[in-house]
């Protein structure tokens, strides 16, 4: 009798799996990416079901053989354990596949970010209104509400962070961010190291803008973005720089291994990019006087990276500019040593801004 219960359980499990698969195919999904993902998942499940079918047939055959023998209780227990392993393996696979589907859902990512922004905006609203109440003579009541509301806001932000980290999504983001970052750095290295510098078209960037370091870094950043967009090699002219008279390369690594000057080429001043296609060198003005302004300036991001980057990061332009600055400010060994020394002395434990 016990063996028939096991067989019945096997058949019931098989039926549930078939119903589940039919439901997976019957859902109406207009999103082509989601449909493709469902199809791939269904094919994976079909392969798993084939394997499980063979395992179940083997179990059923063993049950039939045990029935023909006497004293087969221990063997029945062993067979029952085998069935449980098959069933548990199927459940774990379903959970894993569901998580993978979440990793690659753009709609899911965007909705999470919207909720995160709504929490922040609601807090700004509450804080502003209650601060006004404080100035109108309701000081104690407003302070009490503000404190409680702030506690709720912290809790909600913590909940959102937990949601971001659910199902190892943080690991997916880390992996995707690393892969995209490596891709951008390779592209920058490629355009900055042409096979023949004398034949390479160039963007000439002069570091004589009369402003502070941050402002000058903005200038160099927009020059490299222009070089990337126009597929040219950027040449940085930085001798006499106010922060290092010997030039940028005495502090940071050279922007190129083999193309660090104009190669005697004259440079044409910036104008409509369509009129500059055949010019070997283009000299960039400070961004304040840049006219016409091209579409690829911030907050624009590369079109081919946009789908992955929008999915990965809530502010894609910040990530993109960060990659440009990363390439520009790769430290020379002596600067890297100084940075590490300060880091150890001040015991920095996270990103430092300002």
UniProtKB/TrEMBL annotation:
Family membership noted in the UniProt record: Belongs to the glycosyltransferase 23 family.
Top-level division of the source organism's lineage: Eukaryota
GO molecular function terms attached to this record: glycoprotein 6-alpha-L-fucosyltransferase activity
A Pfam family: FUT8_N_cat
Keyword line: Coiled coil, Glycosyltransferase, Signal, Transferase
Domain (GT23): residue spans on this chain: 199-354
GO biological process, one term: protein N-linked glycosylation
Name of the featured protein: Glycoprotein 6-alpha-L-fucosyltransferase
